[in-house]
Amino acid sequence: MALIVQKFGGSSVKDAEQINNVAEIVTSAYRAGNRVVAVVSAQGDTTDELEAQGLAINPSPSKREMDMLLSAGEQISAALLAMAIEELGCPVVSLLGWQAGFETTSTHGEARIRRVRVERILKELDQRRIVVVTGFQGVDRYGDMTTLGRGGSDTSAVAIAAALKADLCQFYKDVDGVYTADPRKVPGARKLDFISYDEMLELATLGAQVLHNRAVEMAKKYNIRLEMLSSLTRTRGTIVKGERKMEEMLLSGVTKDDNTARISVIGVPDRPGMAFKIFSTLAAKGINVDVILQSIGRNGTKDISFTVPSPKMEEAVALIEEQRENWGVTDIISDEDVAKVSIVGAGMETHPGVAAEMFEALFSQNINIRMISTSEIKITVLLDKADGDRAVKAIHDKFFGDV
Ligand code: ASP
Ligand code: MG
After folding, report:
1. In CATH, what class is 3-174?
2. What pLDDT shows up at residue 248?
């Protein structure tokens, strides 16, 4: 008998038909003799709709009240799923975040989980009940409802799995696993059987929309075995775990992120401390900087280019603009028409020449590279946005083409 946490995303519970389907999945795991905790997101676009309703009444509501509003979405899906499970004849109880023991910080809208007191969940499981828990929410030490940030219910599921020392944490989404590239865009994309936490983390951070990156970090920390699968197809998904076997694939995937912008700071005085000034100014405002490139100093100046998420571009440019004279910078150029294309793979660490092959694929399509950055298991290039899809396809063909 295993203890399984099953997480269902918004599209998997979007209507009565989907909820009944999820109830089948949960009850069949239960009837197979497992102890089952199901964690749910709000139905479909409910969270967006609730947020819009709130903002229509008050364009800048307090974060506390926004949490009161948004947490209602998960309450609805939890209750509906519990009713569907009752209807299938299994004992079940649904619990809100506070009832399930989710203690969080007080940072409304982006609360962090401090711990999960699982006594209540354990008591229910011991009574042979299925436990349905609302994802995304918790309670702070003042007894107020909090939410974990958008997409946070993945993190709720892993937190419960860690606290219960679950054998497996399954994620049912609308895709049936992790692919070598976006299957909607790259026809030859293949589903992976296994992927490591580190690779998954790179993919999640690169915006591959597979799993909330805090969830992957936590799974890695507590060594929770994850499985990504679809609530529709009922086929084997992708397992995320510690290490992959040596003989497995060199790369796990190719991803593209369009939601990025490049900023170049031109004519920066070539002396110590300038990079520190620029990047600490951005960091102080919570602006995440990714690929960074600095030119060689010439005639006493250098250029520093970097990428930021597109929605942060204007703010970042304004912050540097404010200091321009002070810092002695000549010019600031920004460009939103760029895309980041990355390859991720643990096998890269032991295989030389992966970068050259990636660049060759781009060259074969006559695609120009604007910036390059690498980590042990990732290579990222910045390209013109218009070249993005062609680049992903060329790189995917090169590495995954004929196997
Ligand atoms: N319902 C919340 C959201 O859409 C949490 C989640 O689905 O993970 O952000
Ligand atoms: Mg959602």
Report:
1. alpha beta
2. 59
